[in-house]
Amino acid sequence: MPARAEPDRWEFRFAGQGPGTPVTATETYDPVKGYGFEPGLAPGGDRPFRFSVKVPEGNYRVTVTLGDARAKARTSVKAESRRLMLWGVETDKGRFDTRSFIVNVRTTALPPPPPNAPGGTAVRINEREVGTLHWDDKLTLEFADKTPRVAAVTVEKVELPTLYLAGDSTVTDQPAEPGASWGQMITSMLTPEIAVANHAESGETMKSFITGLRLDKILSSIKAGDTVLIQFGHNDSKSAWPQTYVDAASTYPAYLRVFIAEVRRRGAVPVLVTSPHRRTFDAAGRITNSHGDYPDAMRKVAGAEGVALIDLNALSKEIYEALGPEIAPRAFSNDGKDATHHNNVGAWLMARAVVAGIMASDLALKSHIRRDLPPFDPRHPPGPDALNLPESPVRSEVTPRGN
Questions:
Q1: What is the domain-level CATH number for residue 289?
Q2: Model-wide pTM > 0.90
Q3: Of 97, 157, 249, 327, which is the most exposed, with the fewest CB atoms less than 10 Å away?
Q4: Strands laid side by side in the 308-310 sheet
């Protein structure tokens, strides 16, 4: 069993001397032992690797010491299903860099309803979510980049503010390359004093988020002072989905108000986020409106309810048009064949736009934005070649639900 310096604290040592349980590259994850490398993803050479620790549900401060006594290294760190935490940490031979970040871990379990009361005891996840790293009882770290090296890891349970994300495939933690979403990139742009709990999922609508008990899961742990970013519209507008369709003029605003009211009732702060555009250019190189009246409907609800709005719809238009019809496809999944879902580049750009929206607001959340982020102008975004984001070792050709 891993050595515990105190309750809810785990320490591991991968190289050299020092505190913590020594771990060798041959130790595959064992749920009884409670730690180890994921099968087939142990360290070796310069390939990415994943290390997991069995922990209860909650928020954890992870402290990593990166570097190598024998060589230069460049390491990026992701958590759970590819949430970017640290990007491109470079260390010289014999030099080490210690950094901290916050990881949210959750299971599908819900507090059981009282006898004879409606409800459920678990989130109703879909078949594609079964076995994913963001719905299990362990905290998983991925070390990637050109020459990933880690010397030590400490995991410690903490209580601090949480940023919850509710939304669809453009927000969720996409589990495999080449897809990615802004929810799994924004984690790298926040200070290590706030957690991100990304409950978004591909194909979700406001109705299904409620009937699938995903909203219940958020409400079961949310507390005063937390924040919830709410982005729905991509799938809610599909009239071909009769069970979950909502009308832009009537039921869409009504369901938005349900989410707002439930969050506010618990003392937390709701924030509405308009859906990013699909990549649909006209002959003049301008993005056409692929979301109909839904973005405007959300803007009106935000104004009427006094809720902060992040207009990612407008920001994404500026970004795509600045990149242009030739370059913009390089920000999307499946080599640009997918005009809805992003790759790592597009996901980073959308996350940076969301952060810009937070900074332009009066939200207390902006105190948790990292101060060392480079300036960002959606009308002059960095191009794909400037964003050398590390890829994860797991790939999938499965199209996200709801496409």
A1: 3.40.50.1110
A2: yes
A3: 249
A4: 195-198, 162-166, 227-230, 269-273, 308-310
